[in-house]
Amino acid sequence: MIYLDNNATTRVADEVMAAMQPYATTYYGNPHSAHSLGRAAHKGLENARSQVAALLGCAADRVRFTSCGTESNAIVLRGAMSQSERRKVIATAVEHPSILNMLRRMQSRGEIELVVIGVDRDGAIDLESLAAAADERTRMICVMLAQNETGVLHPVRQVAGIARRVGAEILVDAVQAAGKVPLDVDELDADYLTISGHKLHAPKGIGAIYVREGRELDPLWLGGGQEFGLRSGTEPVSLAVGLGTAAALAAEHLPVMEDVRKLRDTLEDSITSQVLSARVTAQATPRLPNTSSISFPGVPASLIVASLDTMHEVCASAGAACDSGPARPSATLTAMGIDRELAIGAVRFSLSRYTTADEIASTAAAVVTQLAQTHADSGGVA
Ligand code: PLP
């Protein structure tokens, strides 16, 4: 199998599995128990916190463990809104559903006033509109560092500057960026930053939030007061150790992402030079090194993805959300103003540090073969 769907989830690194194992079967104490097994678990948990903090460029006591990116985003959004008189939240139109759907629900219940800011064809945020929308009623501005479908990187620091001017806070969803580009919460000027383990070779079921010193979030539920009172519940120590180890490995392997970028570029060049109708989304915009969204006009992405899987053992994903009805273009590509035909034919390839040159060559060949086949079947020309 050639796995090019790493923005959906990643393979757990062997080193991560090995580091977690003792915390499941040997040091399985509750990290808040006073006995030796509890103390060993506590040490593992706090070491993991320091490893995550090192990846984010913050002090260990600013990191809170959660279960995933979605929960991290929800804790910040709900926790911040119950703390303030300010009711306005600004988000970009290409945020992940864990932000946009949550905010829309809060808006429909009259809890917030939501302003959604558009992006252009290259995925760039309309900063002028964002600055115009931000005012003294604004509580939070949500901007993801890297877009999950296109890989487009956003000017978070500039957005933070807008937030600062009106006394608002900024939530940076760094779920896709973590482990792929350098992160520094001070350079970004983030108030809150969220990550998810399963996107960076840790297991599913663990995530984290960075909370800037002095920022207050109301916990969503109460209990034993774990995670600095923000997320009560006994910490999943082995999962946290997994995230910590994955964070350390990601930091160590960041230079390798430049090799990944070259592989990604080779994939794009090789496909677009042979399938002349293929279009790379936001190719000239600063992007994650591992992500490529390539549109094949006139061919539904779901069809390409299914054939790549069953005939060529390549896992990629459709940029279009397909349910039981006809294919619908993705909200992200639609927000970018990309034509329906291009958006429906968008396939996302997302690489990892484990991707090899051979895999990229085989994938490009498979795509070209598949497209030629599809066009032959429909009587068209490639
Ligand atoms: N934010 C972004 C940008 C994502 O891509 C994802 C997952 O795809 C999430 C949040 C949600 O993360 P999780 O799957 O850990 O809940």
If you had to describe this structure to a student in words, what would you say it looks like?
It is a single chain. With 382 residues, the protein is of the alpha/beta class. It contains 13 helices and 13 strands. The protein has helices at residues 14-25, 36-56, 69-81, 97-108, 127-133, 156-165, 185-188, 237-253, 256-274, 301-312, 331-335, 340-344, 357-377; strands spanning 2-3, 63-66, 88-92, 113-117, 138-144, 169-173, 192-196, 207-211, 279-280, 291-295, 314-315, 317-318, 346-350. The strands form three sheets. It has a seven-stranded mixed beta sheet, sandwiched between helices. Strands 9-10-13-12 form a four-stranded antiparallel beta sheet. The chain has a two-stranded parallel ribbon with strand order 1-11. Strand 6 (169-173), helix 7 (185-188) and strand 7 (192-196) form a beta-alpha-beta unit. Helix 3 runs parallel beside helix 4. The longest helix is centred in the N-terminal third of the chain and has 21 residues, at 36-56. The chain starts with a strand and ends in a 5-residue tail after the last helix.
